[in-house]
């Protein structure tokens, strides 16, 4: 699934940003503004995020380009999305719309599971998300992603079954299944009705140094 997504995105024009390229002079200001909005000291943010106080200080002074893993930890501690933290200018509004016709669709080998790529092209190397629609009996077999990657399947309608390493778990509407996806894994629609879900994949860069 990952290889298919990458091929599609390359076809649309590969415009992926690395962590260093995404970090502009606004990053330090954004982190500092959010920290102060929560009335957090550098020490308190360091404790909550697991990022060293000295590193946070350097980020706020724009003296270093942090890894995506570091930004992810800070964003979790500040309860804000990574996209917002990485925004070029947080003071300006950002609204981007993609039409149905421009949304790539991946289809499983049996033709019964469809994944609409709704994630942002600039994050595909470390964060991907999809709208999943599956006919009853549909099966999506996926090869391993990068080591340390985690997948999350939030079920909206129907019943899904996820199998990883011989372990099987069932998710129904309103439930979410999270699992390591750095090994072969299978998603099945096992209910009598069409299944719908949101799938989010956090790649190695976002969960490991």
UniProtKB/TrEMBL annotation:
Record bears the keyword Transcription regulation: yes
Origin superkingdom: Bacteria
Keywords: DNA-binding, Transcription, Transcription regulation
GO cellular component terms attached to this protein's record: cytosol
Pfam families per the UniProt record, alphabetical: Cupin_2, HTH_3
Span of domain HTH cro/C1-type: 31-85
GO molecular function, one term: DNA-binding transcription factor activity
Gene3D superfamilies named among the record's database cross-references: Jelly Rolls, lambda repressor-like DNA-binding domains
PANTHER family the record matches: HTH-TYPE TRANSCRIPTIONAL REGULATOR, HTH-TYPE TRANSCRIPTIONAL REGULATOR SUTR
Name this polypeptide is given: HTH-type transcriptional regulator SutR
Protein's organism: Methylobacterium symbioticum
Taxonomic placement: Bacteria, Pseudomonadati, Pseudomonadota, Alphaproteobacteria, Hyphomicrobiales
Record gene name: sutR_2
